[in-house]
Amino acid sequence: MTAEATPALVEGPGADPATSGSAAGRGPRARTTTAYLRYVAGKLAGAAVSLLAVLVTSFFLFRLIPGDPVKFMTGGRPVSARQIAAYRREFGLDLPLWRQFTDYCGKALTGDLGTSYQFRAPVIDKITEALPNTLLLTGTAFILYTALGILLGTRTAWRHGGPGDRLHTGLALTLYSIPSFWLGLLLIIVLSVGVGPVPGLFPTGGMESGGKEGFAYVVDVAHHLVLPVVTLVAVEYGQTLLVTRSALLDEMGSDYLTTARAKGLRDDLVRRRHAVPNALLPTVTLVFVNLGRTVAGVILVETVFSWPGLGGLFYQALSVPDLPLVQGLFFVFASAVIVMNTLADLLYPLLDPRVGR
């Protein structure tokens, strides 16, 4: 009996050896794809449940804020009971709480987050108007502190125990523990107002001085952008540095690095081509998490620097309280964190095949 006839006997009469071999070869890949799709479905379902929980929480949580929106809308002027009733009827505040909740959820699922009390405009329009300003601030800071954290994290880990490692690690831990609003106020005092011989170099707040166009406008916005970005970078880069450093230190004792050195590769090539790519897996996850967290956590920085973004808008809405605007912004902030966390979860199995299998 020949070797070619053996597969036919194993598979049964009428089986095509070529087809059987191909199917066997595709088996592990098909199982891997199925496992990943099951993993993706689970993560997406978890994200959907989280978004629903945020929607419910955003409605009931801010109903606990003291203050009457109707009094704000009347500007404290004496008004008749009929006028107050008309305001409440206009914004649905006269309805039972359960009815307000069902109306809110139904509209939110269609993209309607209600009408702002103080601006008398759709909440989604106010969010869309302020979102580019927040993305400019957070995007610039995110790129800078991610690049700075990865660069310094790899260098400090590769030369761990040295003076540079101790300096950068200590500075990162110190800055990471400082509240962003406190650091922002300190920068305003020193670099905007001026202290002693140090003159004020940057604006105290806002996004532009006004009256400028073209390239002069770009320079003006960049000038206003410096201090808020420095505040965010100083507070956030430490976490990326520490995670990258820790991951690279775990990789440095691996056998494959010893083998690479034994082959005669230079130390910098061993670091760049072998150690760093494997050590960046936890950092990639952190990058996505930080992106969502930075968008949600920019409230204090935007408030301190009077930056006209979502954070400043949220602070304005809380002071009223403007319930539809507060709820809408809270939902956007929480959604940014959930979406970025989910993207990190979906990307990680592609970088590390052991996850999600």
Write structural notes for this entry.
With 357 residues, the protein is mostly helical. The longest helix is centred in the first third of the chain and has 45 residues, at 17-61. It is built from 14 helices and no strands. It is flat. Helices cover 74% and strands 0% of the residues. Helix 6 (123-158) runs parallel beside helix 14.
How is the secondary structure organized here?
Layout (H helix, E strand, L loop, with lengths): L5 H6 L5 H45 L7 H5 L7 H10 L6 H12 L14 H36 L4 H14 L3 H15 L19 H38 L3 H8 L4 H30 L2 H6 L5 H9 L4 H29 L6
Helix pairs in contact: 2-5, 2-14, 6-7, 6-9, 6-11, 6-14, 7-9, 8-9, 9-11, 10-11, 11-14, 13-14
Highlighted features:
357 residues, mainly alpha, 14 helices, flat
Q: How many strand elements?
A: 0
Number of helices: 14
Question: What's the alpha carbon Rg, rounded to whole Å?
Answer: 28 Å
Proportion of residues in β-strands? under 5%
Question: What sort of overall outline do the alpha carbons produce when their principal axes are compared?
Answer: flat
The helix content is: over 70%
Mean pLDDT: 78
Query: Order of SSEs, N→C?
Result: HHHHHHHHHHHHHH
Structural class: mainly alpha
Measured distance between first and last alpha carbons: 40 Å
